[in-house]
Amino acid sequence: MTDGPLLWYLNRGTGVVLLVLLTVSVVLGVLAMGGRPGRGVPRFVTQTFHRNLALLSVLMLLAHVASAVIDTYVDIRWWQALVPYGATYRPLWLGLGTLSLDVIVVVVLTSLLRTRLGHRSWRAVHLLAWAAWALSVAHAIGIGTDLAHPDGLAVLPTAVCVGAVGVAAVARIARAVAHPELTTARGPA
Amino acid sequence: MSAPAPSPVPVPGRVRIQRGPALLAGVDEGPTLAAHRSRYGPLPTVPLAELDRRVSAVGLRGRGGAAFPFATKLRAAAGRRPVVVVNLSEGEPASAKDTALALGRPHLVLDGAVATARALGSRDVHLVLPADRPDAAAQVRLAVAERKDRVRFRLHTADARFVAGQARAVIELMAGRPNLPVTAWAPEAVSGHRGRPTLLSNAETWAHVGHLVLAGEATYRAHGTAEEPGTALLTITRPGFDAEVLEVPYGVRLRDVLPPFATGHPALVGGFHGAWATWETLGATRVSVPAMAAVGLPLGAGVVHVPDPGSCPVAFTSAVVDYLAGQSAGRCGPCLNGLPALAVAVRAMAQGRDAAARIDELTRLVARRGACAHPDGTVRLVRSLFGALPEEVAAHRAGACLALPSGAASRRVVAR
Amino acid sequence: MSAQLRVDWPACQARGLCHELLPEVVELDEWGYPIVTGEVSEELLSDARAAVRGCPRLALRLVD
Questions:
Q1: Global pTM?
Q2: In terms of DSSP bridges, do strands B303-305 and B275-277 run parallel, antiparallel, or are they unpaired?
Q3: Among A12, B61, B141, B334, which residue has the fewest nearby CB atoms (within 10 Å)?
């Protein structure tokens, strides 16, 4: 079982799904902040969706890591899933994925403790979600075997994800420029 | 964005200080420590229990505008080495009483704070100086340099902004953050500077404490009434004249402390966050915190503005609201959006349009919806125009103005 | 036991979630900022806590 193709498929599949989940989380995070209240989808729906997808991606991340570690075809140890340095199998690309995982864990934990942290500290940490997403994309491109072939199944989803976050990032920056008062870290800590 | 509207009453370049019965008794002797000590003698050490007893017995209240009992603050802060803060920032341009104390009686103010700090076991006394009153700030620095107290004076300079002198804004300044109000979840005396209990009062309050410590309770009670002993500082302002600071005993009629040119005209009592009063009201009202609160005429920081005879109080109110709207820290949504809208509506009324319904709506939207009392004070001023001067309001709603360039003053008196 | 909903005004940025989550107690003014119309009753306490947690700016507090 630990050397069969099942784990290998599971790892590739969860990887692609993860990329989609993280992307949608980021886009929803931006959407939850924008627009005017009272128009379109209620904001708490967007916000709840953003949170639940992010939590779901943590579960998916667990499956992704577990399938990679348990699979004996590649030599990845448990600690290598958490420490972004010193891996034996494609150390740079695996390290980027590991770093992404670490950042995601911090972002999720701080969000669960948000009411105790205060808005300003939470927000500073939460902005790292952009970095986690970018690291995960780099990890996917570098290590993902399905992306090595232009006709691979993962190429289109990855391209769509990069495009979606690109649009979200542009919208976010445009809003920050138009309404600087909404995005500066103000108010009590 | 256009520049914020200027204050209709500028920060006084010069202040006329009249000699008074208690705090301002030694004002002719100069601001030096030697003159101060020769009048009062050395600063005695007063135990906390005795200080508490004295400030309770005379019913000393804060003189910054809220008139909060000083003894309540003292007791809330006692026991945990509170931070003592003397607020000299005087954010309201029309007020000059703390400036007058800084210029004329700085050691009385400092003695009040030092005696209290000693009684509480506090080592630090923070002094918050105004940025836009350089003479007053310089005199306080000189006074600090003269003293050899066993406390550390820590000096801060508040921004030249109306809301910069608000208690929470001052505590933000002391912590190195922007000098703007924030939400207070607990009184400063419980959780203030860096979360520590903080005894923050303005200069006049500390001067009263100083007088009470140096001269004793009997001398303090020599002025005022049995229920409300002591004196209060007033700033009288009038367009084109230096601000005048005088000390009056509690219980005198407001009308009797006003200069002759005020006769027959309405005045703005309590400053820009205050209320309009007719000449009749000024005659019927005595200088007293409870009596004035009962008729909706808060003494506030003690500013009485007497407009030019024959000038339009609606137009003046509009200019004040324009100024106050520009002085919002811009952090609280209802104030940020509501005060400019209110300024537009009041200006429309001053120009002879009927904006009363919109003004009423906006005052409801703005009141009690901010971190500080800035929106509330602005609302009080606007509402007082409707309450105290209904004829002027009615005339403007009908497109007219009672204040005509000539003969208006006499006409107004005849009309009543 | 009822409670009061208090707004940290400088923190509030008119996102409006409090109105969506607690329309019984929170209305919005013409600029989108909350108007707290009354006390939070016993039955509404859990909704009010959700509104406090859900505020994107953490600008709400329940006080007794």
A1: 0.90
A2: unpaired
A3: B141
